[in-house]
Amino acid sequence: MKFIHTSDWHIGRQLHHQSLLDDQAFVLEQIVFLAKAHKVDAVVIAGDIYDRSVPPANAVALLNDVVTQLIQDAKVQVLMIAGNHDSHERLGFAASQMSSSGLHIIGPLTSTVSRVQLTGKNGDAIFYSIPYAEPSRVRSLLDVEVSTHEDAMQVLLKQTTQDDSKGLPKVVVSHCFLDGGSESESERPLSIGGADRINPDLFKPFDYVALGHLHGPQYKGAEYIRYSGSPLKYSFSEINQNKSVTLVELNQQNKPPSIELLPLSALRDVRVISGFLNDVLEEGKADQNKDDYLMVRLQDKHAILDAMGKLRNVYPNVLHLERSGLMSESSNIEIKKDHIKQNEMDMFSSFFSQTTGDELSDSQQTFMKQLLNGLHGAEE
Amino acid sequence: MKFIHTSDWHIGRQLHHQSLLDDQAFVLEQIVFLAKAHKVDAVVIAGDIYDRSVPPANAVALLNDVVTQLIQDAKVQVLMIAGNHDSHERLGFAASQMSSSGLHIIGPLTSTVSRVQLTGKNGDAIFYSIPYAEPSRVRSLLDVEVSTHEDAMQVLLKQTTQDDSKGLPKVVVSHCFLDGGSESESERPLSIGGADRINPDLFKPFDYVALGHLHGPQYKGAEYIRYSGSPLKYSFSEINQNKSVTLVELNQQNKPPSIELLPLSALRDVRVISGFLNDVLEEGKADQNKDDYLMVRLQDKHAILDAMGKLRNVYPNVLHLERSGLMSESSNIEIKKDHIKQNEMDMFSSFFSQTTGDELSDSQQTFMKQLLNGLHGAEE
Questions:
Q1: Confidence band, pLDDT 50/70/90 cuts, at residue A327
Q2: Record: contact A57-B88, CB cut-off 8 A
Q3: What share of chain B is helix, strand, coil (3-state, %, to 5)?
Q4: Is residue A366 part of a domain?
Q5: Are residues B252 and B278 in the same domain?
């Protein structure tokens, strides 16, 4: 059984109000290509298929297109679960009418954990799917006393560990937050205060654990307990992540699987550029990837008229501009209460050094004194 | 080939802000029952499956439930098309992955009209499905010059008339407005000014035409060119309609099918009650169907404190209250410009007769004169 593990497609997502649908179509096309090239038996998507519970119609059309290519053209089985961004009922509509075609959508959590035997050219495997669920949902569904995500997961996993897979490898697909996992800025917290963290050891009894939620590829507890990460960078905090899908080949039960990361390339990368405006503009002329999604940090210390407009003449997809040159190097600027007791000259010196990082020069001090004296003279 | 033709389920619809989901579940359950009882081969739903392009999650869950019962339990094929209320992309998601299970959803119109051969115990039939489409959509999709719904339908039907059904009966499923059809208040107009009307004769070359859009059951042009109507009364304008589904048994090609209307009963009927408040309340005590959805027309001519509250003590689902007693019998009240020239006594008499339907009595006239004189006295 050979499959691609991916997650967090977030189809329909925007980056700083910029639609990413073209970028998503481009990267999902690669996943279809990789599925064919590696002759996988299945593609498993571990939740957050869409970005919103009500995805826009063109996002639905894109997923429809990708699924049809995988199932009909590539003859690859597809298994997907609902994440915390998805509407479980909407995603799960008519799921049982699709399964005979090889499309397995697990929308709302049910009291018996979904168990699907996927067919592999070199042996089948059992996939247990646990879509994202609040502890309260597990509590009412199974009539058990659970208050944390970990408690809830423990109860659900108990069903799957007890299940007899007849010697076939066991895979768990879930959308949750493993304790110690590295977050990015583009994930929506599952709960406040850490009650969403789950001990990775809970997943040790399985042959592979295909997780979704965290957007950086990583594993916790064991190499086979993994997040594939999202296929695209969904925030500027992810600029150094290498996005990929995970190619998994299961061996016999209780033997570690082969795992390989297959890199994905983006239609437009997400990058941060720092420098002085003129340098940035100059370098931009020769930049091969002018249409990347950019955050630009300008080091210039003086006011610039329409910096965004000038940058977009060269880089059309500058999405965010930071004037780091106008801030002191210390990012924590505290305005102390004492300041209101300072005289105007002291206050201005202090403001100047905080915002520029430099002290006032002698000539600047003289100029300011003259200016302040002039103002006070005018008042009297 | 024996099938049930129904349409305009509008799952998720409200009636005067009252959710109808329980009522819809109740009546759809009957359709499942009738499908089993009459051993039909298929259930055909001619559009407006949901009431809104983004149906609430519990509406999706209800449709999922009904479809699963029909396909899995009753082994009945289901064919549904998108109407003008549905989101074609959302409804049509993964449609090709469902068709092998016997669930045929035709979401967005495609350049080749959908052609599905449904299996019948006594012979198959070909179903051509034309989901609701604006003429502009047909224009861009097929690159033809059409401006009206009729032009567009003519182009689409041309494909189906030319198609060789190999002697099998031909059924068209569509969501449109036939010229001369009777409207209810609960349909959303397809366009303004009559450009949505289609000549029923266009549909004559087929063996049965299963239409949706109009909420009252009716046929136009020929008995086999039919609207099944909605399964529930979705406005007070439908109180006298008998809601039903249409049972169709096709014979050989070009022979008229057998058609029978199977009545549906509602969990709560939609009714109008007229009378004086005390009579209405008195009769309500013995009313077996107190929880029907009611519009109450009160004939009382005097002000009543909290009439709605009093009525709802007896009839909990009074949704609308009309004080017909406070209006003259002529519903067209015209305030003529001449009125501003009348003196106060004439104006009041005229107002009194318009709103009550009665003339001022002698004693009322005397009282008003005294009142007006008193007011003028106070002014001077």
A1: low
A2: yes
A3: 35, 20, 45
A4: yes
A5: no
- Numbered residues of chain A with Cβ closer than 8 Å to any chain B Cβ: 53-54, 57-58, 60-61, 63-64, 67-68, 71-72, 87-90, 92-98, 100-103, 105, 108
CA distance A172 to A224: 11
Q: How many structural domains is chain A composed of?
A: 3
CB nearest A67 (choices: B57, B88, B94): B94
Specify the DSSP class assigned to residue B340.
G
> Torsions phi, psi of B312, nearest 5?
-70, -20
Sign of the four-CA dihedral B152, B153, B157, B158? negative
CATH of the domain at B42: 3.60.21.10
Residues A62-80 as b or e (16 or more Cβ within 10 Å = b):
bbbebbbbbbeebebbbbb
Phi then psi for A14, rounded to 5 degrees? -115, 155
- Chain-centre distance for alpha carbon A335: 35
Residues for chain B: how many in total?
A: 380
| pLDDT score, position A380 | 47
Q: What interhelical angle do B21-37 and B57-68 show, nearest 10? A: 10
Domain boundary among B238, B263, B288: B263
Domain shared by A223 and A304, yes or no: no
Question: Do B307 and B209 belong together in one domain?
Answer: no
User: Pick from B57, B67, B94: which is nearest to A87 by CB?
Assistant: B57
Position B335 pLDDT exceeds 60 = no
Q: What is the band of A330 on the pLDDT scale with cuts at 50, 70, 90? A: very low
- For residues B316 and B222, membership in a common domain is answered with no
How many CA within 13 A on the CB side of residue A62?
A: 23
**Are B353 and B299 part of one and the same domain?**
no
Contacts of B380 (CB under 8 A, 6+ apart): none
B64 and A88: CB-CB below 8 Å?
no
Q: What per-residue confidence (pLDDT) applies to B189?
A: 81
Both tokens of residue A276? Answer: 């002085």
Query: Beta-carbon neighbour count of residue A332 at 10 Å?
Result: 5
* Across A275-287, average pLDDT: 93
Query: Cα–Cα–Cα angle for B231, B234, B237, nearest 5°?
Result: 115
Q: Quote the CA–CA distance of B207 and B224 in Å, as a whole number.
A: 7
Shared-domain flag, residues A278 and A200? no
Q: CA of A61: how far to CAs of B112, B283, B319, in Å?
A: 18, 55, 39
Question: Has residue B331 been placed in a domain?
Answer: no
First to last CA, chain A: 88
Q: Which residue, B224, B240, B263, sits at the end of a domain?
A: B263
Q: Considering the domain boundaries, does residue A178 fall inside one?
A: yes
- Count Cβ atoms within 10 A of the Cβ of residue A151 and give its class: 0-12 exposed, 13-18 middle, 19 or more buried: middle
A37, A129: one domain: yes
Q: How far is CA A368 from the centre of its chain?
A: 49
Q: Whole-angstrom Cα distance, residue B107 to residue B81?
A: 6
Residue A288 is encoded by which pair of tokens? 């091969």
Domain range for A133 is 2-263
- The reply to whether B23 and B118 lie within a common domain is yes
Which ranges of A215-285 does DSSP label H, i.e. alpha helix? 277-285
DSSP, res A326: G
Alpha helical stretches, state H, A56-180:
57-68, 88-91, 95-98, 135-142, 149-162
DSSP count for chain A of H helices, then E strands? 10, 19
Q: Is residue A332 part of a domain?
A: no
Nearest CA to A267 out of A296, A293, A239, A230 is that of: A293
Instruction: Read off the pLDDT of each residue in B152-165 and give the average, rounded to a whole number.
Output: 94
Contact list, A52 vs chain B (CB under 8 Å)? none
- Name the region of B239 (left: φ>0; alpha: ψ -120 to 50; beta: rest): alpha
